[in-house]
Amino acid sequence: MSTSPDHLGLAGTGSAGATLASSGAYNWPDAGGHFGTYGGMFVPETLMHPLEELRTAYERYMADPEFLAELDADLQDYVGRPSPLYHAERWSRELGGAQIFLKREDLNHTGAHKVNNTIGQALLARRMGKTRIIAETGAGQHGVASATVAARLGLECVVYMGEVDIARQEANVYRMRLLGARVVSVTSGSRTLKDALNEAMRDWVTNIDDTFYIIGTVAGPHPYPAMVRDFQAVIGREARAQMLARSGRLPDALVACVGGGSNAIGLFYPFIPDEGVAIYGVEAAGDGLQTGRHAAPLCAGRPGVLHGNRTYLMEDNHGQIVETHSISAGLDYPGVGPEHAWLKDSGRAHYDSVTDDEALRAFHHLTRTEGIIPALESSHALAFVHKLAPTMRRDQTIIVNLSGRGDKDMHTVASHDGLVL
Amino acid sequence: MSRIAARFEQLSDRGRTALIPFVTAGDPSPAVTVPLMHAMVAAGVDLIELGVPFSDPIADGPVIQRATERALAQGVSLDDVLDMVRRFREQDTETPVILMGYLNPIEVMGYETFAVAAKSAGLDGALIVDVPPEEGHALVEMLKAQGLDLVYLLAPTSTESRIARIGEVASGFVYYVSVKGVTGAGNLDTAAVAEKVGLIKSLIRLPVGVGFGINNPETAASVARVADAVIVGSAIVSRIEALAATPERIPEAVAEFLAGLRHAIDEVDAHVA
């Protein structure tokens, strides 16, 4: 492993995290950014030097105690970490099986796990002397998290967002503009997240001298999948320490939703060497896998190359990337982080999917039983827990990543229920 | 010797700078492409780059993105593009043709299937935009086994060690991207291009083509002073776009534009000679 994530973000949790680097069991990615046959650097030559520059800076600062202290302090005082690990007792009782613990990333500043990563990358950008931040966004959560840290650090911020997504996420667009970001409407291709990512790459290659591209998920070319994972791994390190402190043992299962997969890898990564911990990633089955209208490349796609890495993709028979569907804009992406592809093939993690309707039922169920309104993305993980928990004993435990709060989804849920807000 | 190497050798003997057009295969309709290729040859081009449409062309600016979308709307696939090359070869066995595109359609077809099909169609090489020398070793082996040339990009940000490394794997020619940006970008800095091309030529034995941002006879002439080949894409594709409703007029209009570039390059070549 080329980086040292285990020194990162331990503020307030004690240093109970596994030291993966020393375990020797799991050392991905390799020097070229590969996770087994996945990942890598499939980019035009124009991007190779900026990526090399980024990798060098990342490795340098992740070994710099001053940088790590700055990051830890921001995660504690600005984001509000550590996030609680909450025992959802009533919901656990209703499901009648395992005890369910929610990792409350929804309580972070800006309302989701995304800020863990944008704080890290923005601090890195400042150290590299970059004055301009660009980002892609789908639902707008990563765009908001990027605009937020850019405002705080006084950096110019441009967010690329598909025209289709702008129309369905007006509140987040306004939020980004309030924060001083320029939101650029992307009208090429399917006019959604994947096209926003294409456009951000084009901006980056044109403005590499002063611009830092903050990718919001564990996709893209090396070093992004590893770097974003390392910034998000604070989730799993905290959860592991919190569970050990509470019960003296590790959880039996982890569950997280997977779009690009950053909240999932953030929870999973520190547990990978813990073979007794079952790991479940949950993709968006949309209208159902059999309809083709979904966003579940791991469950129903095949390996290919998109956005700088080899991974599972949703594509047609000629290798063109196809449009995806999910009620949750944050899961509406035709690829997935390459480390998930590797965890799937290696058998260390299991990937399943739930439909829009199942996710909505879980959304309402958690809201009514625990007084917590989850994001529609996170509701996919909750819906899977609905199926998993009853198959487990009452003395067993599940940690589910409640990756974001549902405030942004009020309009979507209301319109699904036939209401106009 | 490959058809590309032979062509550059002839050009060098005659003191002529190559003119290389790029068009997206199947834009605005599949029927246009082969007649357009012949018309471009008649206008004096020396090698043709044929773009394979891909849904997510991250290295391309808006003009070629739209061309890609027009071709994809007609369902143009990698198989179709190879078929166009095959039909072009029925009348022209001299002019080298390379494909320029992205890896994923080749992944789906399969590396060996692609390499064999490309060779049998009469293709001479490929420039796979998102495959730097660090990746795609298995594909490179398959293409080389079929005698196909592998053209690589070089960028303003490519370091000396990267240039040398690319020189070891590339064949046919190398393609220097003249600006930091995507295809169709403006602001060509000819002095900076001259300096970088000089550096590349000191490190690599292959011919050096220069593209991105060449859109008129003046920029073509200034690049011809320093490069072995002048590569023009978006400026052609935007003319195709303007005539998309009357595709029968496209070959003639593109040929006229290219003849103007050819004339400007010839004047430079005559002066240098």
TrEMBL record, chain A:
GO terms for cellular component: cytoplasm. Transmembrane segments: none annotated. InterPro entries: Trp_synth_b_CS, Trp_synth_beta, Trp_synth_beta/beta-like, TrpB-like_PALP, TrpB-like_PALP_sf. GO terms for molecular function: tryptophan synthase activity. Keywords: Amino-acid biosynthesis, Aromatic amino acid biosynthesis, Lyase, Pyridoxal phosphate, Tryptophan biosynthesis. Signal peptide: none annotated. It is an enzyme of class 4 (lyase). Pfam families: PALP. Residues 80-404 form the Tryptophan synthase beta chain-like PALP domain. HAMAP family: Trp_synth_beta. The beta subunit is responsible for the synthesis of L-tryptophan from indole and L-serine. Belongs to the TrpB family. This is Tryptophan synthase beta chain.
UniProtKB/TrEMBL annotation, chain B:
Keywords: Amino-acid biosynthesis, Aromatic amino acid biosynthesis, Lyase, Tryptophan biosynthesis. The keyword Lyase applies. Pfam families: Trp_syntA. GO terms for cellular component: cytosol. InterPro entries: Aldolase_TIM, RibuloseP-bd_barrel, Trp_synthase_alpha_AS, Trp_synthase_suA. Transmembrane segments: none annotated. The active site is at E49 (proton acceptor), D60 (proton acceptor). It catalyses: (1S,2R)-1-C-(indol-3-yl)glycerol 3-phosphate + L-serine = D-glyceraldehyde 3-phosphate + L-tryptophan + H2O. The keyword Amino-acid biosynthesis applies. CDD domains: Tryptophan_synthase_alpha. Pathway: Amino-acid biosynthesis; L-tryptophan biosynthesis; L-tryptophan from chorismate: step 5/5. Its EC number is 4.2.1.20. GO terms for molecular function: tryptophan synthase activity. Belongs to the TrpA family. HAMAP family: Trp_synth_alpha (MF_00131). Tetramer of two alpha and two beta chains. The alpha subunit is responsible for the aldol cleavage of indoleglycerol phosphate to indole and glyceraldehyde 3-phosphate. This is Tryptophan synthase alpha chain. The gene is trpA.
